[in-house]
Structures are given as C-alpha cells and as structure tokens.
Design a protein that fits this description.
By secondary structure, this protein is mainly alpha-helical. The chain has one domain (about 1-105): de novo design (two linked rop proteins), CATH 1.20.1440.60. It has 4 helices and no strands. The protein has helices spanning about 1-10, 20-40, 45-70, 80-105. Helix 1 runs antiparallel to helix 2, helix 2 runs antiparallel to helix 3 (about 45-70) and helix 3 (about 45-70) runs antiparallel to helix 4.
C-alpha cells in the first residue's frame, strides 16, 4: 500500500495529456500489486494464492518498466522514483520468497 501511495504522488508530476494513458496505466499496475495479494489470500487454496502472487509479481515488473520509461522520456527524474524502485525491489524479493515457500506446499 505504501508503494501505491508513492506512485500516486509521483504520477501527479506527469503531464496532463498522459492522464488517460501512461498515468492511468502506472496507477493500475501499482494498485494491482496489493490487490492481487489480498485477493489471492482470500482464496481457498494455496495454488490459487500462488497464482495471484505471480500476477502481483508481473504487475511489479510492469510498474518498474513504466517508472524507468518516465525517467527516460523526461517526465520524472531519478530522485522522483528512487523510493519507488527500492520498494519494488523489496516487494519483488518478498513475492519470490512467498511464492517459493507456498509453491513447495502446493
């Protein structure tokens, strides 16, 4: 959730013409991470939970790419995304570990 909040703050800096394209896509990817973790946790099986964690991992990769793109095209600077990228790295490690741990028990 902290990541999503930081993403919303950072995307306020994007140009207004991006509100329905890049800004929307970035925010959707950011919201998708905790949403998929929560939805997977509410499922009845570990196998389903692992599937939703994998979707969250994909959204994490998508968000990383979009953040880097924003820097590359000059919409944001490195300092705008540094906390986000650190959180993404941390979340990625946690998701990998969680998937591995649950995957062994599926």
């Amino acid at each position: 959730m902290e990541l999503t909040e930081k993403v919303y703050i950072a995307t306020k800096k994007l140009p207004k013409e991006e509100i329905y394209s890049l800004t929307n896509q970035i925010r959707r990817a950011a919201v998708s991470i905790p949403s998929n973790i929560a939805e997977g946790h509410s499922r009845r099986s570990k196998k389903e939970f692992v599937q939703f964690l994998s979707i969250a991992l994909g959204s994490k990769a998508e968000l990383e790419t979009q953040m880097l793109l924003c820097v590359n095209i000059g919409y944001l600077c490195e300092t705008d995304i540094s906390d986000i990228m650190l959180l993404l790295q941390k979340i990625g490690k946690m998701l990998f570990a969680f998937i591995h741990k649950l995957g062994d028990k599926v």
